[in-house]
Write a structure and sequence with these properties.
Helix 3 (63-77) crosses helix 4. An 8-stranded mixed beta sheet has the order 1-8-2-7-6-3-5-4, with helices on both faces. A 6-stranded parallel beta sheet has the order 9-14-13-10-12-11, with helices on both faces. It has 2 domains: 2-227, 3-Layer(aba) Sandwich (Rossmann fold); 238-455, P-loop containing nucleotide triphosphate hydrolases (Rossmann fold, 3-Layer(aba) Sandwich), CATH 3.40.50. By secondary structure, the protein is α/β, with parallel strands linked by helices. The longest helix is centred in the N-terminal third of the chain and has 15 residues, at 63-77. The protein has helices at 22-30, 38-48, 63-77, 101-115, 131-139, 149-157, 174-179, 183-191, 210-219, 250-260, 272-284, 298-310, 320-323, 343-350, 374-383, 390-398, and strands at residues 2-4, 53-56, 94-97, 122-125, 144-147, 168-171, 200-205, 224-227, 238-244, 265-268, 289-292, 315-318, 333-336, 360-366.
Length: 463
């Protein structure tokens, strides 16, 4: 955990020190958050001191509460109340921009939880869902607006929201938003509408390439820079296993893995078509499995995610795009059915397991097509004190450069947070019961999962 910048406020070590408003503190207690995570220890006093913040923090670090708590607290301290729309237009106090519908709705759920009984209202809007319901919610009052860039602009174009009252602007997973081509939309929201320049801006990103630094330079003022690892996901808490095989052995291997380690499993596959066909195959083999990717209807993705969280589905097959940013707790096993082309994605993916102090396992199927990532894999495994197989060492020493060979600029936050103290979720990896064929859940009703989609391309479609 590092903080850089001028006049860094003293960090807190307990929520009591943050002097949160009583009603917010009650909600924190209700959520059983006993100790602030490292990013929260710093963000609370930094935002309270009126400073801008650029934070290198990923899903799993407690970043959502890190921006929600100080914002809700400040709005409460200022006695802000929600109001019905004035001439059909809302003037939110805080705006949170997120790349995907899933992340936006996850943030919204957290916001609802911590706005409970505060008189503040949080509303979410994202594309791919009917506009009317979202406009209806807005009309009832909106202090904290969470949204994806396109839909926010759309609603602003219709004159239903104004950014002129924004006191807090939060950009979450900023690198992801740029990867998905949202820079123009974000700039339009921040610079092209009525957003005041007197505001506090908090920018969260897992990596800090040049484009993000430029964005920060344009949007932030006298900011502090925080770098933090994933809470509870110390690299040691994840056992990383590499398996070398031929592509056609993957199906057999994945069955072995699932049978050997029952429990919530997240499987990464590269293409939309493979995601569908693997989910279908596993379903037919008796596993409560389904798949999510960029082509799946929003309703279906949400249903699949809900079922996975509730334990009705125990195997979720996903493309990177669909899984990124999703707060899926208690995954006991991540399987890289297809390894990603770059090491950043690998680190993101395996971080889905071993969270909040639990132990996790990540198994990767390595084929000859993955030689390009061998060097960086060896580095990551070594750093985490994991076993590096001889064959991987050999590929790494044979392979010169190539795609995915190097860490992206910015890299990941060093100094992973300690695991202690964030035991919000049950320990151990046993997780949800699923046994052989009993009481299987099918999110598609009586139908099996849909047939493979026609796209065999990588899922980089975004939403
Ligand atoms: P996030 O990084 O915001 O996606 O949060 C990851 C998970 O950590 C979520 O399930 C949060 O509910 C949980 N969490 C965040 N802050 C705390 C805390 N201070 N104590 C316990 N759990 C937390």
């Amino acid at each position: 955990m590092t903080v850089t910048g001028k006049d860094v406020p003293q960090c807190i070590s307990s929520f009591a020190e943050a002097r949160l408003q009583a009603v917010l503190m009650e909600n924190v207690t209700r959520a059983t958050y006993t100790t602030p995570t490292p990013v929260q220890k710093y963000s609370l006093p930094i935002v309270a001191a009126g400073r801008d913040l650029m934070a290198c923090a990923q899903t799993g670090s407690g970043k959502t509460a890190a921006f929600l708590f100080p914002v809700i607290n400040a709005l409460l301290a200022a006695n802000v109340q929600s109001r019905a729309a004035s001439r059909g237009r809302q003037y939110p106090d805080a705006l949170i921009v997120a790349p995907t519908r899933e992340l936006a709705s996850q943030i919204h759920i957290e916001a609802l939880k911590f706005c409970y009984r505060t008189g503040l209202r949080a509303v979410v809007c994202y594309g791919g869902a009917p506009m009317n319901g979202q406009l209806y919610e807005l009309d009832y009052g909106c202090n904290i607006l969470v949204g994806t860039p396109g839909r926010l602009l759309d609603i602003s174009d219709r004159g239903r929201i104004s950014f002129s009252n924004i006191k807090y602007l939060i950009l979450d997973e900023a690198d992801r938003m740029l990867d998905m081509g949202f820079e123009k939309d974000i700039r339009q929201i921040v610079e092209g509408r009525d957003m005041p320049s007197r505001r506090q801006t908090l920018l969260f990103s897992a990596t800090f390439p040049k484009e993000i630094r430029q964005l920060a330079q344009d949007f932030l003022y006298n900011e502090l820079f925080l770098k933090v690892g994933r809470v509870g996901s110390t690299t040691e808490s994840i056992t990383q296993v590499m398996k070398y095989m031929k592509a056609f052995d993957k199906q057999t291997e994945v069955l072995k893995e699932l049978r050997a380690l029952p429990g919530r499993t997240l499987i990464f596959s590269e293409t939309k078509r493979d995601t569908d066909s693997l989910a279908r195959y596993l379903f037919n083999q008796g596993f409560a499995a389904t798949g999510i990717h960029g082509d799946r209807a929003q309703r279906e993705r949400e249903a699949a995610l809900r079922s996975f969280k509730m334990g009705k589905i125990t195997v979720l097959v996903a493309t990177d795009v669909a899984a990124r940013g999703l707060d899926i707790d208690d995954v006991c096993h991540v399987i890289n059915y297809d390894l990603p082309a770059n090491i950043d994605s690998y680190v993101h993916r395996i971080g889905r397991t071993g969270r909040a102090g639990n132990l996790g396992r990540a198994t990767s199927f390595f084929t000859d097509d993955n030689k390009g990532i061998s060097k960086s894999l060896v580095k990551v495994l070594r750093e985490a004190n994991q076993i590096v197989p001889d064959w991987l060492e050999r590929f790494a020493s044979e392979h010169r450069g190539g795609k995915g060979g190097a860490m992206r600029r910015g890299g990941y936050g060093g100094g992973y947070g300690g695991a202690g103290g964030y035991s919000n979720s049950a320990a151990g990896g046993g997780g949800a019961a699923y046994g052989g064929g009993s009481a299987r859940y099918n999110p598609y009703g009586s139908r099996p999962p849909p047939p493979p989609s026609s796209t065999g391309e990588r899922d980089d479609s975004g939403y």
